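Justification of computing resources. Each target in the renewal requires a structure prediction run like the one illustrated here; the chain below, 305 residues long, is used simply to show the kind of job we budget for.
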Amino acid sequence: MLKYDVVVRVPGSTANLGSGFDCIGMALQLYTTIKMKKTSQTVIHTKGPNLKGLPIDKSNLIYKVAKLVFEKANLPIPELEIIIESEIPLTRGLGSSAAAIIGGMVASNVIAGKPFTPEELYQFATELEGHPDNVGASLFGGIVIAICGSTQVSYINVSPPKGLTTVVAIPDYELSTTLSRNLLPDSYSRSDTVHALSHSALLAASLVSGNTSVLYKAMNDRIHQPFRMSLIPGMEELLTNSKHYGAVGIALSGAGPAVIALTEKDDGRLKQYMQSVLNENGITSSILSLNPDIEGIKVESFVNC
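Resulting structure tokens:
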């Protein structure tokens, strides 16, 4: 007898990339693995330090999204055994909740007999997450540029520019997405709005065309990063000077506190610089080199085998 009905591996992600606030996400080679099967009583196991403290009852996010899929399909909600293991640190701006949502939805959709298409699951996930960037990247891989409609998400999925990789500085403290978002103003000036539109358009064009020469300028942002600077000591210096150490672009990853630099030459200088700036500001951190994930969620199904 096979142990699980379905196993999924979901990539984490970075969102916004500076000026692409709530509309541009990129999948990263940092993964959450979810194993799921029908059982007689719901049991949830978490493995590894990244999941420490998460609920292991029916209040767990992955169980809740699985329940949502069965409800939307008008099917009885089964008891489930769920095993979760994750390389993605929580509340750091690297898409841990988006990976959980996509993983839970895709796995339960398989168990339910695949009543929903990937696009329908994308819509459900966007409604739950509140924006389409992280969930789209975790689902489809690569770069997702998307907008929310009332009934469906409109998106383009493209491969990252050839040779592009990332250096990610992950501070050793958590940052609530809600706290970070509450720092943002309710309205913006005309000049800041025009700046946002022009820079996000240039960012999307750069990523789609593969012309990375304009990335550093295109990622400049006035919508969210200036208001979050105080939460990440050293961030302003990193945004200003990382281009001198090999970055072709740099931004706060999601709502932070991770900072992600895009580069085409990971020779160690950028890692060393980013860590030294954070250290000088009293921030201990992990520095990772992460390639973009271009495949999105991987599914191994044993249902009806």
